């Protein structure tokens, strides 16, 4: 889908605020949002694509007005309430309670086993590569075109390459297709490709090359 | 949805407390997880990989052929680094990494991404005008003879760059070399 997250080439942005010495988190609540996202993902309350899609569905003005970790917070709130893990009214009532008593801490039981589960995920990863019976449709050096249609729902094809011609530079393993996985419509793994695009074709300026990683169904033969 | 810090703090606590009440997570879970990223995982790990590639030509070749396997030789890998690719910077080609759609980044090698990498400015502009962003925002003017390749991490591969070894370090050992490798050089917004 077209969404506010798809920022490649978007006009109107100023300088990058680069600070080599910035802290990992600017605020403690951001630290908590990061940890909560990792925790809820580890226990499988939602998948990675679903999590991304919840951020992408934010209204564009809200997406632009919020910082990175606030977008993560919105995604958790969206997913956990939509999936029925938490009830929206209960969640809001609890927010009001903490607003009225800001020094109140979260109370309850520890769960050391959960950290062990996270340790396993951390060490071994959560790879989304899957074997597929079909060979890759494209080979290194093939000329391809990125599809032009903007489907509704989640996708990982950046808008700026849609409809443009590129060259396959590397063939990668098959991975779970985000377009279906984000919507609980199955994994449907496809081969993925590293495809090079000429900047001048994309932006009508620039002498660089842009390489994008895409799933097989995001491509069609060039002719 | 523009929220002040008090509101954000309350929203985070509300979420955590309800998840704890449901027995889905513990009160210790969040801190334990974050501490891993605060104390164990960060760009120092990537610096070890780079230094090894500089001193060991066979390792360098393995790294460029299969970075996932090469990094595992140094016990580096796992979550958000399940498939790693290292791209090598030379006198004539400069690679820089971005994720225009979100914030994909090789966590086991570089830690979690810095604010500038996640910022809309970086995500919007690096693919369209890298030469200008590198020169003006990162103080890295590249010569016209250097070809720039921007890698957008849009699928499951996580990228890092293998920077060039600086002149004058020929007799340095691996540990000393690792000490000069910066996070920025491994994203491609700096050279050493």
Automatic annotation (TrEMBL), chain A:
Residues 129-221 form the Nitrile hydratase beta subunit domain. Keywords: Lyase. Pfam families: NHase_beta_C, NHase_beta_N. Belongs to the nitrile hydratase subunit beta family. Residues 1-107 form the Nitrile hydratase beta subunit-like N-terminal domain. It comes from Lentzea tibetensis. It catalyses: an aliphatic primary amide = an aliphatic nitrile + H2O. This is Nitrile hydratase subunit beta. The keyword Lyase applies. Its EC number is 4.2.1.84. NHase catalyzes the hydration of various nitrile compounds to the corresponding amides. One of its GO terms (molecular function) is nitrile hydratase activity. NCBIfam families: nitrile_beta. InterPro entries: CN_hydtase_beta-like_N (IPR049054), CN_hydtase_beta_C (IPR042262), CN_hydtase_beta_dom_C (IPR024690), Elect_transpt_acc-like_dom_sf (IPR008990), Nitrile_hydratase_bsu (IPR003168).
Automatic annotation (TrEMBL), chain B:
Fe(3+) binds at residues 99, 102-104. Belongs to the nitrile hydratase subunit alpha family. It comes from the Bacteria. Its EC number is 4.2.1.84. Residues 8-190 form the Nitrile hydratase alpha/Thiocyanate hydrolase gamma domain. Keywords: Iron, Lyase, Metal-binding. SUPFAM superfamilies: Nitrile hydratase alpha chain. The gene is nthA. InterPro entries: CN_Hdrase_a/SCN_Hdrase_g_sf (IPR036648), CN_Hdrtase_a/SCN_Hdrlase_g (IPR004232), CN_Hdrtase_asu/SCN_Hdrlase_gsu (IPR023900), Nitrile_hydratase_asu (IPR018141). It is an enzyme of class 4 (lyase). This is nitrile hydratase. It catalyses: an aliphatic primary amide = an aliphatic nitrile + H2O. Gene3D superfamilies: Nitrile hydratase alpha /Thiocyanate hydrolase gamma. One of its GO terms (molecular function) is transition metal ion binding. The keyword Lyase applies. The keyword Lyase applies. It holds the Pfam family NHase_alpha. It comes from Lentzea tibetensis.
């Amino acid at each position: 889908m077209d969404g506010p997250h798809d920022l490649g080439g978007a006009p109107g942005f100023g300088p990058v605020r680069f600070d080599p010495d910035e802290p990992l988190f600017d605020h403690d609540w951001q630290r908590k949002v990061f940890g909560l996202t990792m925790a809820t993902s580890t226990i499988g309350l939602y998948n990675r694509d679903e999590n991304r899609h919840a951020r992408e569905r934010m209204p564009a003005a809200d997406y632009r007005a919020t910082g990175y970790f606030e977008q993560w917070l919105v995604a958790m709130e969206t997913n956990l309430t939509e999936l029925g893990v938490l009830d929206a009214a209960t969640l809001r009532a609890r927010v009001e309670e903490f607003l009225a008593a800001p020094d109140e801490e979260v109370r309850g039981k520890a769960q050391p086993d959960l950290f062990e589960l996270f340790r396993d995920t951390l060490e071994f990863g959560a790879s989304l590569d899957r074997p597929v019976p079909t060979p890759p449709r494209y080979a290194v050096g093939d000329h391809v075109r990125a599809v032009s249609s903007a489907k509704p729902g989640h996708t990982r094809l950046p808008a700026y390459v849609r409809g443009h011609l590129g060259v396959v530079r590397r063939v990668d393993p098959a991975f779970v297709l985000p377009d279906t996985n984000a919507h609980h419509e199955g994994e449907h793994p496809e081969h993925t490709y590293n495809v090079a695009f000429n900047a001048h074709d994309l932006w009508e300026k620039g002498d660089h090359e842009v390489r994008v990683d895409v799933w097989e169904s995001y491509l069609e033969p060039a002719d | 949805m523009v929220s002040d810090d008090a509101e954000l703090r309350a929203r985070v606590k509300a979420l955590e407390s309800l998840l704890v009440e449901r027995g889905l997570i513990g009160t210790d879970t969040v801190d334990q997880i974050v501490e891993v990223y605060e104390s164990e995982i960060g760009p120092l790990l990537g610096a070890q990989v780079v230094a090894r590639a500089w001193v060991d030509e066979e390792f360098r070749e393995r790294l460029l052929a299969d970075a996932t396997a090469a990094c595992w030789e140094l016990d580096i890998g796992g979550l958000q680094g399940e498939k790693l690719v290292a791209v090598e910077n030379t006198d004539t080609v400069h690679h820089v990494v971005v994720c225009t759609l979100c914030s994909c980044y090789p966590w086991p090698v570089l830690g979690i991404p810095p604010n500038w990498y996640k910022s809309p400015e970086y995500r919007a502009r690096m693919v369209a005008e890298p030469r200008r962003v590198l020169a003006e925002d990162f103080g890295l003017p590249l010569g016209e003879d250097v070809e720039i390749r921007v890698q957008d991490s849009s699928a499951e591969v996580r990228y890092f760059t293998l920077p060039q070894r600086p002149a004058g370090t020929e007799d340095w050992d691996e540990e000393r070399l690792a000490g000069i490798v910066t996070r920025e050089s491994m994203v491609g917004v700096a050279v050493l």
